[in-house]
Amino acid sequence: MRKLRVTVLGPVRAWNGQVEIDLGPARRRALFAMLAANANRPVTRAELIRALWGESAPSTAAGNIYTYVSGLRRSLGPAGGMLRSGRAGYTLRLEPGALDADRFEALCEAAVAPAAAGRPGQAVALLDEALALWQGEAYANVTGLFADLDRHRLTELRIAAAERRARLVLTGGGDDALIADLAALVRDHPLHEPFHELLMCALHRAGRGAEALDVFHAARRVLVGELGVEPGPALRELQSRILAEPAPPAPAVPVTPAAVVAPDVPRRGRLVGRDGELALLRGLLDALGEGRSAIVWIEGEPGIGKSALLDAALHEARALGHRVARGSAEELSSRIPLHVMRRALHLEDAPHDDPARAVDRVLGHVRRLTAEGPLVLAVDHLQWADEASLLAWERLAALTRWLPLLLVATARPEPGRRDLARLRRGVGTRDGHLIRLTPLPPSDIEQIFGRTVGVPPGATLRSLAPLAAGNPLYARELVTGLVAEDGVRVVDGLAEVNARADEMPRSLLDTVRASLDHLSSGAREALRYAALLGDAFAVAEVAAVTGRTPFDLMADLEEAVAADVLVDAGSELAFRQPVLRRALAAGIPAALRPTLHRHAAQALADNGGPAARVAEHLLAGPPEVDEWLVGWLVAHGAELSRQAPEPARELLRRALASHRLPQAARATLAALLDGPDR
């Protein structure tokens, strides 16, 4: 028998060997989750009822439990015998380590001994393995009393494990990724003081004392604003120590040769394409040397090359002898007033006082710099800048009328961000320059392929250029992923791909999905299900598979259109690039896709959709033949045979192979399969 595996550290899912199991509707899945969390011990019907309904159980709850268990046994298939009934209740048999939550707790426990014995590296490795088991919020697709309680318990264990890991790494001297890891933990758990403390320590050790103090002030604002309390003794003592002690020298960063297959680092001489945009920026730099100022707003989707274009322009500025101030906003610093502006202008040691006074101080500093000569002030990733930095940028834009200042910002589209929309409009009203980066042509993508691999691309590698959708980051991730999977070989001095390499590497799928993280959760969910339907789809189809009303979906779909993920295709919407749809569709569990396709087919048919479109979803749905499918084929088989002969033949053969097909329907469908119009 194939091994039954269960995950709850994320969506609740189960597998028979490598085959994912469809656990069914929400309450049936919740029941399975409780049995899995209590594996190998009986769970009474009363416990299950309370776990699923709390104190509001319906009169039919006991019968529903029986129905859910029966459905689960059918879904488990060969592993159905692992779900047993007895006088004491229901028991799900799992082998040791079959539940990811059990493995997580065991690995955390195993890390205790090496940490106590002075082997932090071994302990960190065990904690890394434990934390890697998490795929999102525990019990992410399950509700109910038990799920809520166990989710809280597991989340606390996860936080504790992350804190232990960070302390072990910090005790060992830290590593390059520690500050970024801690910043992410602070962002995700802003009320957990130890994460703020550890981030302050890591920054101070790296010689970034001013940023460490920024973290303290940000933590204080959160704690006072959310809980009405001041930081605890550990944070206050650490702040005092940082203020009293000079920061240790920043550790030397080892320089290692770049690997041949390493992704491009955007810099002058490595920019591909964008000749027109770079020429515009060169002209503005020349004009700046003559005392003429300007404002530039560079926008585009994630990975499209905004930062690379900015770096190339700043290289030109330095070559012309202009003074350059560059800051890059970070998501974790969005709560720290003027963080990006102070870093760009080297004002980290300025007092942390009222934000309005601090903005005035920034403007005064820029006036002094421009009095000495032209200045290029650039802010990368402006969408992550704090409110005070956005105010400073807006006021500096107004000053470009009188100062020799080239003010540049890069930002990705952020639907719903009125503050960014206001700044963008201000660029236009001040005769500034809006540069919208569009996808690169295939020839440029092929050039990126060659630079990434280290040799010119051959015909088979060039044929994959459309998968990158004109996005430089996607192009690099595509090739880097293929190289990592041994999908690229050099033949006669050209990089070629293996026959199987038409599949998108996981690294590219992950990168594309990550580029959509700025969308709301509702928009991402709607897009995932829309992706299941094809490159183009109707709103009614998305409503069918999500169970939401078209009216409820409109705000999320409009957000996706505003973000340039979807485009208007007449009576339908369409994904701007196929790579977006493929990446999103891959995020839907394979076991759920057939059921969703069947729902879409029935909804389309009910709404009078084209027979060929209904057939697409039926063929992608479950293979079972039921009364609805037979009735639809009898009514629409002739129409389908004219619109899409091959799908029609496949569906008719599938129906005729069923032993339950009524005789009258069998005769009709057989005639359609063999009829003259075929």
What's the arrangement of secondary structure elements?
Elements: E1 4-7, E2 13-16, E3 19-20, H1 26-37, H2 45-53, H3 61-76, E4 83-86, E5 89-92, H4 100-110, H5 112-116, H6 120-131, H7 145-171, H8 178-188, H9 193-205, H10 209-227, H11 233-244, H12 275-289, E6 294-299, H13 306-319, E7 323-328, H14 339-344, H15 355-372, E8 375-380, H16 387-399, E9 405-411, H17 418-429, E10 433-436, H18 442-453, H19 459-462, H20 472-484, E11 488-491, E12 494-497, H21 506-514, H22 521-533, E13 536-537, H23 539-546, H24 550-562, E14 566-569, E15 572-575, H25 578-585, H26 593-606, H27 611-620, H28 627-643, H29 645-656, H30 663-674
Parallel strand pairs: 6-9, 6-10, 7-8, 8-9
Antiparallel strand pairs: 1-2, 2-3, 4-5, 11-12, 13-15, 14-15
Helix pairs in contact: 1-3, 4-6, 6-7, 7-8, 7-9, 8-9, 9-10, 9-11, 10-11, 12-13, 15-16, 16-17, 18-20, 20-21, 21-25, 22-23, 22-24, 22-25, 23-26, 26-27, 27-28, 27-29, 28-29, 28-30, 29-30
